[in-house]
Amino acid sequence: MEHLLEIKNLHVVYKGDGALVRAVNGVDLTLDRGETLGLVGETGAGKTTTALAIMRLLPERTGSIQEGQILLDGNDITKASDADMRVLRGSLVSMIFQDPMTSLNPTIRVGEQVGEVLELHHKDLGKEEIEKRVDEIFKLVGLPPERKSEYPHQFSGGMRQRIVIAIALACQPQLLLADEPTTALDVTIQAQVLELMQRLKEKLHTSTILITHDLGVVAETCDKVAIMYAGEIIEIGTVEDIFEGREHHPYTVGLFGSIPDLEKKERRLHPIDGMMPDPAYLPEGCKFHDRCPKATERCSAQAPSMHMWESHGIRCHLFESGREKTE
Amino acid sequence: MLKYIGKRILMMIPVVLGISFIIFSILALTPGDPAQMILGENASLEDIQQLREEMGLNENFLIRYVKYMADAVRLDFGESYRTSLPVVEEILTRLPNTFSLAFFGIGLSVVIGVPIGIISAVKQYSIFDTVSLGLALIMTSIPAFWLGLMLLLVFALKLGWFPAIGITDWTGFVLPSVTLAIGSMATMIRMTRSTMLEVIREDYIRTARSKGASEGRIIRRHELRNALLPIITIIGINFGLQMGGAMICETVFSIPGMGSLMITSVRQKDVPMVMAAVLFVAIAISLINLLIDIIYAFVDPRIKSQYVKTSR
């Protein structure tokens, strides 16, 4: 069966003030129907940029897709016209944005903001039918429908995130890009929102890319995980591969090592030394080499390629000749 | 909402009292005797003294002010020293002229300036944007009296399209309105452009795009309304400024308006006329400010919720 989403060798750059910022450098991804992929990485790793590229919503003046293909349902959307993209956006693919406090228009009633998606993609629906659908969606995300005539400022952060989710889900998209949907929320609301997304996934059979830097969230909700570093996917696999597998990219090891163990008494946290490289001046070779505890001379000269075993892939020279070698 | 409007109208009372007191004091402090002006250079001292007594000018300044205000509250603004006619009559024939002038001037600058500002923002750094910047620069730099004279020269005298003097019908308003509009149009263009640029970068515009809305729809439905608040503020401020600008325009185009009335009345120490004119204009501007604030509430629900207690 054809994949719902297939990204091949995606390169995205931002131009501005003379510098060329390489935000995404050769990302390959596939996502099947009904699957949830967790896209994990530090701030600035290129997660949001990847999602915006799929929406074709990169900042017009500065951002552009330099190379690669994004096949959505078999069609390459990097070549689609703006008019075609408008048809796809909101109906086939939609996005939940990071900050619910700024993602809603302050001067439009929330019900209308949800209804607008329906209005745009289901031109045959009458006013009353749209209202009815909006009520249903409101109930689905756990909002009282009678509050649809209120404005965003009358809602709390968690409620607003539900409205943002309601907008994204209004047309039952096949692909949902959730960009840190819970980061701006407190823990109890986080749990509610994640549970809600899980329920919706089961009900609507939507594929989801969940962008987050919260590994706990990934473990709980995702089927597959991709770990991004400096615009590349450095490790990809099923949740079992990443959370229970024995072999990992040194960066992944560092990432998990930085989570404090609740059962051990630790005096200090264990961060990864150094900073992520400036995407305007990426280093030669492996982009992680100057922070990597296992780096060799080769790492600073030659960029590693992705080494796959079944579902699990690692982009590192250490795994060049198979996984046994490192044991 | 009604309660808020009532409150705002009550708040106008101290404003009007303050303005009237300041104007009354200034008129009382400036040299020159109204009785002398009325009777002329050659009047005898006794005649002047007698007239001063009749007009109540010999009384204490504060008592005169209180008496004046007491009459004013009963809508009796006195008679002009110059013409001996009730001042209200004169003002009511002139006020509409000045207001129409300011209104047309503002209207013209909004109708032309706001769309130019929007296009400049949407097509930032394009040729259109650069040209509109240059245009705005030129428009702020032109002094109104010079522009008025040039327009008169070309369109009234050379081409004869519009009358050069007075306002018998709407054609008389064209040249003065254009003169007034040019100055505020520049602010309008630049203000609209900068607020639109701010709104365009907002997250909720990206949300609108992610819904699949077209650019035109995004501008109309999502951007314009949010950019409107600062634009409305500018319109309100400009209305006050236009009253000043209108005076120059009235002089250049020989229009019988409030501006020319106030200038001649001040020169001749026609105290009742000046007082009434200033009060009418002050009340009018206060009312316009109130109107602007009410429009705010209808544009931005966040402001409205401060005025109205929601039922929830």
Characterize the structure shown.
The complex is a heterodimer of chains A (327) and B (312). In chain A, strand 11 and strand 12 form a beta hairpin. Chain A has 327 residues and is α/β, with parallel strands linked by helices. In chain A, the strands form two sheets. An eight-stranded mixed beta sheet of chain A has the order 6-7-8-3-9-10-12-11, with helices on both faces. In chain A, helix 3 crosses helix 4 and helix 3 (110-121) runs parallel beside helix 5 (157-169). The model of chain A has no long low-confidence stretch (mean pLDDT 87). Chain A has helices at residues 47-55, 82-88, 110-121, 127-140, 157-169, 187-204, 215-221, 239-244, 250-257; strands at 5-16, 19-31, 36-41, 63-72, 75-76, 93-96, 175-179, 207-212, 224-229, 232-238, 306-309, 312-315. Chain A has nine helices and twelve strands. By secondary structure, chain B is mainly α. Chain B has two domains: 2-73, no CATH class; 96-256, MetI-like fold, CATH 1.10.3720.10. Chain B contains 13 helices and no strands. Chain B has helices at 2-29, 34-39, 45-55, 61-73, 87-122, 127-141, 144-158, 171-200, 203-210, 215-253, 258-267, 271-299, 301-307. The longest helix of chain B has 39 residues, at 215-253. The model of chain B has no long low-confidence stretch (mean pLDDT 85). The A-B interface holds A 55, 57, 61, 85-91, 94-95, 97, 99, 102-108, 116-117, 120-121, 151, 153-154, 164, 167-168 and B 124, 202-204, 206-214, 221-222, 225-226, 299-302, 305, 310, 312.
